[in-house]
Amino acid sequence: QAELLTPPHINRSIPVTLLVEEIEKIIKSIDMKKKFAFRDKAILSLLYASGLRVSELTDLKLMSLLFNEGIIRVFGKGGKERIVPLGNQAILHMQNYLYELRHSMVKKGKSGSFVFLNRNGGQLTRMSIWNILHKNCIRAGIAKKISPHVFRHSFATHLLEGGADLRSVQEMLG
User: Fold this and answer.
1) How far from 106 is each of 47, 57, 111, 132, 150, CA to CA, in Å?
2) Residue 102 CA, distance from chain mean position
3) pLDDT tens across 30-74, in order?
């Protein structure tokens, strides 16, 4: 009887990725006159520079930022810790946010030690990250259907294209 069953059709499409130039265009499109510009620039550059999942980004704590070592400690799925190297550009945008904006956003009893805060001083949500990305894609004139996960795919693709070995990329992505 089992011979009569047809196996499920698995349609695996290649994930959308962005060119390096497109990512730079999105990050540069942030209007630096806006109140949360430093935060938004730090978020988008960190997403691309680290390949973090959105939940890892929203859960990121201050003690996980080790800029002197050029790394961040990330707690991924299942609470597993991994170390992710960061480029100088991402570190610069992160430091600009921390020194120029974050301290003024902190609200006692709300902020915890989360790196990225919303306008009320609380932890940013996944939807907030999506909205920040979407708004800046439109501003940059990028017509592709883009989610924060596209930054993760782009991070991995660009590392592999640049000659990184698959195992290292898998480690960084967790």
Assistant:
1) 22, 18, 6, 20, 30
2) 18
3) 999 999 999 999 999 999 999 999 999 999 999 999 999 999 999
| DSSP code per residue over the chain | -GGGPPPPP---PPPP---HHHHHHHHHTS-TTSTTHHHHHHHHHHHHHH---HHHHHT-BGGGEEGGGTEEEEE-GGG-EEEEE--HHHHHHHHHHIIIIIHHH--TTT-TTBSSB-TTSSBPPHHHHHHHHHHHHHHHT--S---HHHHHHHHHHHHHHTT--HHHHHHHH-
Query: Are 135 and 141 contacting, i.e. CB atoms less than 8 angstroms apart?
Result: no
pLDDT of 127 reads: 96
The model's pTM = 0.87
Max Cα–Cα distance, the chain, nearest Å: 68
CA atoms within 13 A on the CB side of 84: 32
Phi, psi of 64 (to 5 degrees): -85, -10
Asked if residues 152 and 18 have their Cβ atoms less than 8 Å apart, the reply is no
Long-range contacts from 157-163, C-beta under 8 angstroms, 24+ separation: 157/17, 158/20
